[in-house]
Amino acid sequence: MRKLTYYIACTIDGFIGDPEGDAASLYAFTTPAYLEWMGAEYPETTPSHLREALGVDAPHRHFDTVVQGMRSYRIALDVGVTSPFAHLREFVATRSLTESPDPNVELIADDLVGRIRALKAEDGPLGIWLCGGSTIAGALVDEIDELVIKTYPQVYGSGMPMFGAGFEPRDFELGEVRTFDNGVLVRTYTRKR
User: Fold this and answer.
1) Which domains does the chain have, with CATH numbers?
2) What mean pLDDT is reported for the chain?
3) Does residue 177 sit in helix, strand or coil?
4) Of 56, 73, 117, 183, which sees the most CB atoms within 10 A?
5) 64 Cβ partners below 8 Å, 6+ apart?
6) Is the CB of residue 193 less than 8 Å from the CB of residue 183?
7) Cβ within 8 Å of residue 69, ≥6 positions away
8) How far apart are CA 72 and CA 74, in angstroms?
9) C-alpha span between 151 and 146 (Å, rounded)
10) Can you tell me the distance from the alpha carbon of 180 to that of 193, in angstroms, rounded to the nearest whole number?
11) Which long-range contacts (CB under 8 A, 24 or more apart) does 113-118 make?
12) Quick one: average pLDDT of 129-153?
């Protein structure tokens, strides 16, 4: 069984973007050492169109598939990129698009949970990356096996939460913790089942 990992950047107070979903203020913390770590540890999470410029040419370590919501996908579309993670199997959960703008991107309009369960049931050594955003993370919260939370030293006060879901406690166990000189803290959690 493959695992679904929510690998996400957030503020200290748990927001993944401002009220419209923009997280550009967090980019100020991407120092060379931090980018080097991300490129080495999670190379597959670097968008295809940026890999060469950032010097990322490592094999996939964790994921061979990415799932994202329409707001996350819209960031790429707005700059003319129809397959931001062309080096992965790419899925976009959306009801607003009826036809995929790219042959590498499969749209999921209905039964998101069922489709994710089918992907998790596939054979393979690598997992599935839940890229964002809040709404699909909320819909898939019970399917998430692992959290990798990159916490940036910034407070928003309000905005888009990590999970757009109702209140229901769910337990995770803390694993690896990594700190960086830029103030970023990366924590890995595994779901307690």
Assistant:
1) 4-191 (3.40.430.10)
2) 95
3) strand
4) 73
5) 44, 88, 89, 124, 126, 127
6) no
7) 92, 93, 94, 132, 133, 134, 135, 136
8) 5
9) 15
10) 31
11) 113/139, 113/140, 113/142, 113/143, 115/91, 116/4, 116/67, 116/140, 116/143, 117/143
12) 96
Per mean pLDDT, which range of 21-30, 40-49, 88-97 is the poorest?
21-30
Half-sphere exposure of 12 (CA within 13 A, CB side): 7
pLDDT of residue 172: 98
Q: Over 90: is that where the pLDDT of 22 sits?
A: no
- β-bridge partners, 66: 90, 129
SS3 44: helix
Angle at 113 (CA atoms; ends 176, 38), nearest 5 degrees: 30
Q: Please give the Cα distance from 48 to 52 (Å, whole number).
A: 8
pLDDT of residue 133: 87
Helix (H) or strand (E) holding 76: helix 70-77
